[in-house]
Amino acid sequence: MECSTAQLARLLLPVHDLPSDLDSDATTPSLLQKPSDISTTIEDLDSDASAPSLLKKPSDISAFIENEQAVDFKQILKDLMKRQVFRVIKDCPLGIVFKDLRVVGAGSRTSLQPTVSSPFHPSTDILSGFEGVVTPGQMLLVLGRPGSGCSTFLKTLANQRGEYHAVEGEVFYDSFTPKEIHDSFRGDVTYCPEDDVHFPTLTVNQTLSFAVRNRTPAARFLGQTREEYVEDTTTRLMKVMGLYHLTNALVGNAEVQGVSGGERKRVSIAETLGSAGSLCVWDNSTRGLDSSTALEFIRTLRCVTDIRRTTTIVSLYQASERLYDLFDKVCVIAEGKMAYFGSAKLAKGYFIDMGFEPQNRQTTPDFLVAGRTLRFSRIVSKIRPGYESFVPRTSEDLASRFKVSDLSRQNQKTIEMRCKQFIGNRKHKQTYLSGVAAERAPRSTAYMTSIPQQVKAVMKRRLQVIVGNKFELFVQLASQVFQAVIIGTVFLNVPKDTSAYFSRGGVLFFSLFFSAITSLAEVPALFSQRPIVLRHQKAALYYPFIQSLAHTVIDIPITLVIQLVFSVILYLLVGLQRSAAQFFIFYLFIFLMSQTMKTFFRTIAASFKTCHSAIAASGIFVLLISFYGGYAIPWPTAPMGLRWIMWLNPLWWGFGALVVNEFHTLDGVCSTLVPQGPGYENVSLVNQVCTTAGSQPGQLLVDGNIYAGLTFDFWYGHLWRNFSVICVFYLVFLAALLIATEYNMSSTFDSAVILFRSSSNVIDVYAKALDEEKADAEFRSRNHSKVADPSTFHNLEKNTVDTNLFTWQHLQYEVPIEGGMKRLLDDVTGFVVPGKLTALMGESGAGKTTLLNVLAQRVAAGVVGGDLFVNGQPLPIDFQAQMQATVREALLFSANLRQPQSVPLTEKKAYVDKCLQMCGLEEYADAIVGSLGVEHRKRTTIAVELAAKPKLLLFLDEPTSGLESQSAWAIVQCLRELADHGQAILCTIHQPSAELFQVFDRLLLLCKGGQTVYFGDIGENSSTVLNYLERNGAPRCGSDANPAEYILDVIGAGTAAISITDWYDVWKRSSEAMQLQVEIEKMHEHGRTCPQQPSVQYSVFATSWSHQFVALTQRNFRAYWRAPAYIRAKFVLNIAGGLLVGFTFFQANDSLQGTQNKLFSIFLVLVLSISLVHQIMAVYIDIRTVYEIRERHSRMYHWTALVVSQLVAELPWNMTSSAMFFFCCYWTIGYPTNRAGYTFLMLSVAVPLYYTTLGHGIASMAPTTPVASLYFTTLIIFVLIFDGVIQPFMELKWWKWMYRVSPFTYIIEGLLGQAIGGEAISCSYTELVSVNPPKGLTCDQYMGPFMQFAGGYLTNPEAAEGCQYCPYTTTDQYMFSRFNIAYSNHWRNLGIVFGFVAFNITAVFWFTYFMRIRTVGVFASLRQKLIRSK
């Protein structure tokens, strides 16, 4: 096994590197120390008589890899080494030395959970007093309990300092400072984080190929092309990490189904290996891997470290002795202090000499992190007799004791020697520079590839992401087609006369405005990919701005096609000017504006750290764009002091260009002659006047050029000037986007501290330890001794469990894939009984989590075969409510909803306190779950399940993954106690120690393909399972071997392991398998003969709907209060919008323009709701995702209770913020005070109700936030068009029915009609129409018949010439004739708006059920209900 692992590891070597020795002993470094070694190596290679001829071409490597089991990998690498020696390409080793290292992070009061009223806080220490050196060819193991400072230490050594307040002390990477490394050699220091963050819709091959492509050296083997190098290296990576069979599988995430968690971890490892760093840092990278795979991974690192002379630093939890022996040095961290740094071989003796003694069969890593005092760990190390008063009692004592030790002095001497040798050594620096020069792109040191190569690679990945998420692209195209059809048919074949001049302007404006607000979807889309870009930037794969540049470039052809479809449909339906030149100018500006606005909103997103803040800022800009786009407020009527906003608005320049392009060749017949009608048939044009702007005395035609100039101040000569200005806007926005992306990549996604409820007093009690690292260890010390207290478990009520037996037989599970079905589980049989602790083991990807999901009824796709029984009977209706996999919610919430409602709340609270004590979480009772460390999240998961008092069984998926040995031991001991008190438990487990494995009663072992290898008792000292394996041909297990590791090795677990025995076939033919079937049948017979005990719970859920609703509402209100960015964004948007509307239409008068301004002030209120709904949808989908992934399958509550509680929690904030909008704009615009009540009711109650329910309705049918944004944009434009403002009611033709369906119709009519209805209109001087009557007639005599049916008034009725005519007398006349608005309908309108609210609520339930909840067909669902009713 070891030889095979070493050979596979060598496949990772980039062909430009120089291996020195290829013996199979992975633990023995063999490095070239001097140039003379090169000739010796060549002679050794040449002396190998068995060596085959060299590979003829680079592609031969792949051919060998395809048949890896039959090829001598050592010989292949000898051939590669020969060629590399002749090329004399130098290695670039890089060591690290650090002295007096201190890391300062967020401090005490920052540990309080931020709320709406949170202040800013100071900072404090995380790490202090660290010093050491790691040289090329050495491997350093970092040990410490979760929260002790391991991740901070590793990130600091990896030169990733951005998330910390300050890093003090001296750190040198040989001759380079951290700044030089960051600026020039960032890719040479790689960091593999604990969490796996990838594009979920990319395949494994695409993900790894991208990383390799961006770290491809300029100098390659024998003229190997870049693509050949990428293909060969990617193939080697997938082979070594056991991912080759998943080449075309999606990586996936919690929402997108892809590879398993362990396989995803291997993707992260392979991606980091593909980066080919000189100093590699691995943060708990074995989490989620089985012990065999973990061992192979560390052996691989050992080989790469030896052969390539890399510097490797690794943190591991639950490290076995075999893993530990592979390391040269070890660093032990205790509560942010350095307890030990030095030789791994001497570490154990150092602590023994200090007075500590290892427990029986305790591994060295466990002993090194074992507790020295009650304050340091739950499990106290044994103290040697006579050392009781001598051993250290605190982490400070441990650090000071090591400081004065001989090992510390030796460490300091090594540091001094290393510093003297390399610091300030220009020769070494120049040697390193010359070494990397052969690998890097010209004039580049931080990145291996040039900017054009990076752009090409990122563009290719962007295309792959789009192809992987085709649905979003389809929604974009469908949205544009839909809007083009709607707008085109609303303005279908607009007439050529002046009656359609206003409508033409509306078509042109909203053609641009639609593409502008559609671009809002770019904001959440950019934030979703930011963590990935940040990680790649730290790995020096590409400049962050390359991502934005590539995104923009790839978007150009897509936008060209989509906007072409939009333009053709719209242009032909509306009947705009039919000339090729005018059409292509129209298309050009539509496309250019779409690109400009997308870039603008991406820039906003790139400039903010949170999505809510970015959406709020975008909302303000949407208001500015719509206000000052030139349509609602033309330039001549805009406030003088705010006209400069138009100059900064690209939409205004685009609208001007489209207007002059359209009206340049348009001469319309005047349709608004005054006077006209009965009695005026023979009147000369001398005695009539055209009221359309641009009309000339005595002419019936109105020149479109003059109309556009007088109405909007747009002139044809400005057409290409506007084009140039928009191009400048585009380039400026693009430059700003690239700059913001490059320099504003700071992450706000992860909390650096443990956050406590703001009213918690824990912060004051533990003021000395409030950061992520020290608080975790400090608070842990307060409760460690309590967890193992047996009396706590004796208080566990016996009635929380029963004697039900859960069995499954011949379980199979298949999922659809391209080209057929894939079987994930194959004929799995087993049972779980009360009082027994069953371990589910197997290699990564064997189907362990899948089996848990199938047993827990959590799978929604695929075909499940086989039978599941409780006491031999079909599963009860409340089966899922009786158990649960992992969930991260508050204990009281779980107890409140999952325990029967008849249980008093006081009793539930008391039981929650017991669960906290059992799981060691008392001191963390007020901590925010999302900010906890890995260990305490695991504890919280178990505690949540215990709080529910599971009757049947408890399923746990990897409860010890990511924990060090002692924490894992404490959790398993907790499970053991629960099982001893009658609880049935089934849990998956990775990398267990021998002692940990022995705690379990039974084992269900799976191999690749979800096939059973063994199910049965483990036996004392694992004798039963070992006897089974040895009896069937397995080698004998050594007395000092870990049985769990031995078992996985035997069945061929691991990426490169192969078992010649078909253990699945052995199991099927074994007597144990037959005995299992007999035993299960006996259980079924016994269960069927026993009288069935009716469940106390007669429904799917433990509590009533009202109880669920109250609990969910309380939780949502707390969550909103703790989301200050979201709440503040609402208020900022409403207050800024209110002030903007108010001062834009400041003290609007009673003239025609003033009345129209009031109309648009109401209309723009609706535009404000666009950004508010985008905010609402993002939060709604986030909460729904938590429900779908974690809570739905536990049957904690009904989905309808969640929907209603979200609405109830959202509305008060929306109503309050809308009230602020009302107060900021109502009196500022000049509305009368005596009518403020109705307006306040509409604006602060009805409108928030409408847009809140609308946002929830759209979000309920969308899978992601960007898709929801596209859905909403499409709908909101649809609704805006038919409200009678953009296209007046009389011009809607056959679309008039949609006018009555649009909710905005009634909102605008209600607000405007109530606010200004019944008032007189006083035309300003410029609005009066001057008409000359025929000779002998006064103005009143001439205009009187016309005013009787047309309305209006004369200011000089007795005059004989220059009659000053105002078209409207009252606001009612103006509103009804132009917009079909009647003052008398205001209460009716309010009622209709509430009707729309009810419709939206109904839509929320309908879409949620049919789009998110229902997993089977309607008829199948009805059939199931009928069967249940029988």
The proportion of residues in beta strands is 5-15%
The outline comes out as: elongated
- Helix count equals 52
Taking the alpha carbons of the first and last residues, their distance comes to: 59 Å
Structural class comes to alpha/beta
**What is the typical, i.e. mean, pLDDT?**
79
Adjacency order of strands in the biggest sheet: 5-6-7-3-8-9
Helix content: 40-55%
Q: Tell me the radius of gyration.
A: 37 Å
Largest sheet: 6 strands, mixed
Low-confidence stretches: 1-89, 372-379, 747-752, 762-793, 795-801, 877-889, 1426-1430
Number of strands: 26
What report would you give on this structure?
With 1430 residues, the protein is an alpha/beta fold. It contains 52 helices and 26 strands. It has a six-stranded mixed β-sheet with strand order 5-6-7-3-8-9, sandwiched between helices. A hairpin with a 2-residue loop joins β8 and β9 (337-343). The chain is elongated. The model is unreliable at 1-89, 372-379, 747-752, 762-793, 795-801, 877-889 and 1426-1430 (pLDDT under 50).
